[in-house]
Amino acid sequence: MSPAAAATPTVGSGPGVPSNDGAALLELRDVEASYGPFRSLFGVSLGVRERSVTTLLGANGSGKTTVVRVCCGLLKPSSGQLLYQGKDITGMRAYKMARLGIVHAPEGRSVFSSLTVEENLALTFRQVFGRSGWRGAVKNAYERFPRLGERRKQVAGTLSGGEQRMLSLARVLVHEPKLLITDELSLGLAPVIIDEVYETLATIRDSGTALLIVEQHVHQALTLADDVVVVSKGRVTLSGAVADLGDVSDRLLPAVQGDLPAGNGAG
Description:
Blueprint: E1 24-35, E2 38-49, E3 53-57, H1 64-71, E4 79-84, E5 87-88, H2 94-100, E6 102-105, H3 117-144, H4 146-150, H5 161-172, E7 179-183, H6 191-206, E8 210-214, H7 218-224, E9 227-232, E10 235-241, H8 242-245, H9 249-257
Helix pairs in contact: 5-6
């Protein structure tokens, strides 16, 4: 079976939604999106199941980031629907979607480099839990990310790239989201650090949070994924459960990396 020819049974009613028996937590149905006069997405449909991991793959400029922006409310679709737990939330503002439990960890490290690890956490947690609750939240963050506990007094700008990714994740996970959307968390990291970041993502999944992972490292992404969606030129070209697709990682590389040689990532 070639990836391009893979048939895709649906979750819900939209074509291109991963094939599985679970209910979709978040679903895009025939979504189109534009930046001014320039169309970026063309009838994109995909779904993320409860407590599952969906990996979104595609070459640079394929539309991955636009899909993420739609999913977290940063870009309103020009047509189509965005559903969350079966309810239409198309056009909902990003902060309201965050309150529903949809959290976005953007590309980059998103930390205050001149503050210590603990100061970064305290700054975020005080806003959420107030003066009486933030210390307990910091303790919980250290239990989830032991490496951060070891580095609590270290200035964030001197942490390794992987440790900074962990710190940014700890800050966005304060609300215990139902869906975490990550955008190229492994970008620019050494392979051993990527492994650590993915171990962290596995822990987050095991806690009950669904994940939508935008990634450039095909092999790494598929080790964690339940479902995979490939986009090219703003359209879904492959979608399905990883278990049903078999070993397609090598065949996905050309579609994901475009004309780049294997080993060079494409955002």
